[in-house]
């Protein structure tokens, strides 16, 4: 499949896991823009994609910051002029932060981090990308899509995950609202509940999955599911899918 | 039933609807503290309760403000010294604000209002009241309780309710986390999904329920359900109930 | 409170737990009819209620059998002529049967037992009691109610509970359908998710709750919640509540 | 892609919609067996697949009948000896039957039809195919899969759909139980909530979707999603997806 010269994809939140794999997968069809707060997070994968004869650009921006995000889209316009947006992935996961604590030990800063990354971030990102996706309804090779990375905490609160779950569940329902509003206008908004740890070298934060590598989710498998969501026919959109290792108890 | 001289109840968020009715209902058993941002919101019901021979005090405080809330609890210690907390109701509903708008017309201030009132507010309130409720596990006439007022938007996003739903769903899962953490320690955290408009004089914001008064929920009926939740035996706690008019489609 | 001389309540499925306690609780307000497959199941509680100066009658009938159920209501007409039905409780729990087995060891008879007790039974019972409850909308001291006893398996399948969960979840959604159809006509249909073992002498079937009695639900507490559901104002019906011991993980 | 000479797929419940399209899609990779109660339902699609140089066989059997289903699998052994089962689709939808009636007009036969087709049928089919799928864990080109066709009624009861919803929701939780039991053994059990009418010539039963063809789901799009589910990597199984037309309100 040739890489499109009319449409691009953007991935907000790139690290060694889902964001990287999604960028690689979508780069088979589109030039991809990678957003991360630090060039360290994207530079290797940008190089890897470009070396493979496909196209990627990295932009340093905090996607949860309204002004920074606007500036990023101005940069995109200059870097890949004339291209329209076909797919946007919101993959910012502020989960690894040390906010897995009993409720009475949490500070309001812990809460802020979760809400900013999960809800404000998707809000800002949505306000930037949805007008662009709407412009692509005619012409895009697949229905223009916004795909959001959720987690078990998106549907379930628990003892040590209170502020993370508050942020993830608010994010999930925001994505659902966007699906209900923009689906009928031709934009596909989907939410993926990633129920398990990602198989990346430093994945130490999710104790349930310690032990055998069998218990981790391949980020490439997540990327494949995101690509599938993007290519669904408009007569059969999925709003939500769950993804977990075969061995995971749920 | 005599009003307790050892335990009190607090209602955060008092207006003409649920907060007022809950304060009246709980005042049959406990002195009640009413919190609202403006004395206008509580002064009539405080007077009404005190005139009836029971006890109420009103405190002006923004419960979503950490410092203001701490100051409020200092005031409570002075006003009703020695009393312990048996029940706390979080009823702050920033819903009536004009944020029922298409997503692309919303500002990040609209989002802030929802998150502040729904999530930050419950977070702060929870951090203040849960240590007090834990101290009451021994001795309280009923299991010490934190009851949170939710809404349809707590479980469902929709076109015009995106930021409200983001806040309410985050709040709901925060309450669920608190239930899972503090239930085993004897504190009952319950969440009520109020699925309909409240029957108060100025209830004009919920168009589905325009028309006959039959379609509105009596705030006294909500208060009765909150009282029931508070008095549930510790062997049979409800974490969540829904409440809607018999005539409501759902 | 005097026992009504115009309205009665019926409990289908009486054993040592929820059914017995519900019958006792509702007998404070209404004459109660107890249905069970064997007189052994109800005779002691019928005697206990009648000895207390209230009124109970026991009828031997398999409520999952259409003809037997019709005959039972004929008997009721003769035994308590002129009384109208205010509350009906469907509490048949075929759960304790030895169908907690790996899927490939189950027989289709195991499935039949679950579907018959959970779905056919509620279907038949609903067809018998709903016309009677509709006749009571005018005049009943509280909104006429049908209350259904559910379980954790009503919302969740699992390895050893497949056929039980199939039956309970079908029952739950049937109850939800009835709530949506008959709520607007004034009949309150509610479903209670009992998430834990009941504290009865022979409660050995629920291994999670072995050990301390603290982990069991008091059937009296369940009965109190059923009474509360029955007495809810028609402007604030609950369709579903969960009930679990404070100490239960969920 | 060459058609496998080692593994086959089976589709139970073939009509003009999902079953036919799924058989066509899976025939690109596997010989397919089509089960239906009448040869009329499968003969055209069997001919179409075979004419295209791929392989299909049709078997007349009522998959909800235990003995008939066993006989069908004996026939399969003879017709395609040595082949192992890679994918099984349970697509029997007894929904179009005239059971969309107010509850009090339903007969227990209406209920039986729903439970038989939805729950007994999946139970029998599961008991037949799961042992075969377990044998294919080693060697199958994709994780051996059982995919179940659900509907809106699988998660929601309503006025006119009470018996259908009872059957579909029981079926859904049965599928979930199977996923929890057999996922860790390497078999992928997935449930698809088809939320809308299927675009087939005679699709008249779903009034919400009358009018423009835009409001119908393409059965080919459903088949594509089923194929995607079958090919998911074992580190990232989806247990449930929803599928609806972009224009559908939900």
TrEMBL record, chains A, B, C, D:
The root-end lineage is:
Eukaryota, Fungi, Dikarya, Ascomycota, Pezizomycotina
The record's SUPFAM superfamilies line, in alphabetical order, gives:
NAD(P)-binding Rossmann-fold domains (SSF51735)
Quote the InterPro entries the UniProt record gives.
NAD(P)-bd_dom_sf (IPR036291), SDR_fam (IPR002347)
Q: Which residue positions does the secretion signal occupy?
A: none
Task: Give the protein's recorded name.
Answer: NAD(P)-binding protein
Gene source species: Mollisia scopiformis (Conifer needle endophyte fungus)
